[in-house]
Automatic annotation (TrEMBL):
It comes from the Eukaryota. It comes from Salarias fasciatus. Residues 229-302 form the Homeobox domain. Residues 1-38, 325-345, 402-438 are annotated as: Disordered. One of its GO terms (molecular function) is DNA-binding transcription factor activity. Residues 231-303 bind DNA. This is Pre-B-cell leukemia transcription factor 1.
DNA sequence: AATAATGATTACGC
DNA sequence: GCGTAATCATTATT
């Protein structure tokens, strides 16, 4: 390091062309005779052999000398330029990558879930917001909520530490490589552009690792959410009043228990299904739909089991109907629209069971073939019962009225030919709202 | 603790 | 999108 004079000297020689090499390169062109070549080769070998003989200091000195040569920068510049024009330009085309949509999606989700957001305060707030938005977890189960939040923040913490680790590693590696390249740029032509490129490559690699981290984090969050927010896991039974209302509607529309969207909303409102029971994935109206879906299928599956219930509700609606009509000062109401619908027909796949159940419950023996034709008589019976009892009808009478019919064995609730039934069930005050709110 | 009841979800067809 | 049928997972009941 300190022998400047010697360096100067040696580098002068070196740059002029290798002492032995340059000459014969020029000489042995035409290949005059093998003699000269042989000697050249010998020369080279000799030189190679002597390289190892050189002391380390000497080698370093030479290197340094080369580095300091005044022509060197220019030469390297040219070489770099050439390199740029060849290899780099070929690869340069695919250089700029558009921001990976997948990564963007993950980022967005993490942000939305409050995992990637700002530190604690905002993060948990975001988490709460996300939870509230998605699950609508009411105030009643705050314990679960906090549990959820705790787990989420755990995930969040892991995510952040991992991310930091990766970032750090990336930086370390990048600086290392950069140093290396910079150092090498003294001995071989490396343009700053190339270094830049290398850095970007490294970053890309690391970002793909980060994406994996984000991916798995997202998965974890999703699992957490599905565990905590899945309504199925935290289902609450409807309260008594709600089921009454629903049942009432169901049995008074037995012929066609498919409430319209409006009716559903009305029912949902009436049932007062609490907010805690409604989730975003299954809003109130959907709960009603679920209920009716379940009810229909379960009723159909086993009518016998529901017979009593049917009777009960039928009787009730019958009573209410009479009350209404009595109020209207019309003793013998002509059409009894409300309950007429309930005598409707629906089709079942297992008609045998149905028939049996009807038989056993009624004590009346119906002929299978003519069951479908009994609607009118049932309506009559209903009317009769209403006018006669005027109050609680016995289960027997009711069961007669509400035993299902119209066995078509093709499954499904075919709309019955019931004449005037499509009106609302419990007429009461103002069933015709036609509000169209929302 | 078994078992029934029940609300919600899923798969599939229309 | 809605309906059915099957199924799941929880809650109520025995």
């Amino acid at each position: 390091m300190d022998e400047q004079p010697r360096l100067m000297h040696s580098h002068g020689v070196g740059m002029a062309g290798h002492p032995g090499l340059a000459p014969h390169m020029q000489d042995g062109t035409a290949g005059t005779d093998g003699e000269g070549r042989k000697q050249d080769i010998g020369d080279i070998l000799q030189q190679i052999m002597t390289i190892t003989d050189q002391s380390l200091d000497e080698a370093q000195a030479r290197k340094h000398a080369l580095n300091c040569h005044r022509m060197k920068p220019a030469l390297f510049n040219v070489l770099c330029e050439i390199k740029e024009k060849t290899v780099l330009s070929i690869r340069g085309a695919q250089e700029e990558e558009p921001p990976d949509p997948q990564l963007m999606r993950l980022d967005n989700m993490l942000l939305a879930e409050g995992v990637a957001g700002p530190e604690k305060g905002g993060g948990s707030a975001a988490a709460a917001a996300a939870a509230a938005a998605t699950g609508g977890i009411g105030a009643d189960n705050s314990a679960e909520h906090s549990d959820y939040r705790a787990k989420l923040s755990q995930i969040r913490q892991i995510y952040h530490t991992e991310l930091e680790k990766y970032e750090q590693a990336c930086n370390e590696f990048t600086t290392h490589v950069m140093n290396l390249l910079r150092e090498q740029s003294r001995t071989r032509p490396i343009s700053p552009k190339e270094i830049e490129r290398m850095v970007s490559i490294i970053h890309r690699k690391f970002s793909s690792i980060q994406m994996q981290l984000k991916q798995s984090t997202c998965e974890a969050v999703m699992i957490l959410r599905s565990r905590f927010l899945d309504a199925r896991r935290k289902r609450r039974n409807f309260n008594k009043q709600a089921t009454e209302i629903l049942n009432e509607y169901f049995y008074s529309h037995l012929s066609n228990p498919y409430p319209s969207e409006e009716a559903k909303e009305e029912l949902a409102k009436k049932c007062g299904i609490t907010v805690s029971q409604a989730s975003l994935s299954s809003p109130l109206s959907r709960q009603v739909s679920n209920w009716f879906g379940n009810k229909r299928i379960r009723y159909k599956k086993n009518i016998g089991k529901f017979q009593e219930e049917a009777n009960m509700y039928a009787a009730r609606t019958a009573v209410s109907a009479t009350n209404v009509s009595a109020h209207g000062s019309q003793a013998n109401s002509p059409s009894t629209p409300n309950s007429a619908g309930s005598a409707g027909s629906f089709n079942m796949s297992n008609s045998g069971d149905l028939f049996m159940s009807v038989q056993s419950l009624n004590g009346d023996s119906y002929q299978g073939g003519q069951v479908g034709a009994n609607i009118q008589s049932q309506v009559d019976t209903l009317r009769h019962v209403i006018s006669q009892t005027g109050g609680y009808s016995d289960s027997l009478a009711a069961s007669q009225m509400y035993s299902p019919q119209g066995i078509n064995t093709n499954g499904g609730w075919q709309d019955a030919p019931t004449p005037s039934s499509v009106t609302s069930p419990t007429e009461g005050p103002g069933s015709v709202h036609s509000d169209t709110s929302n």
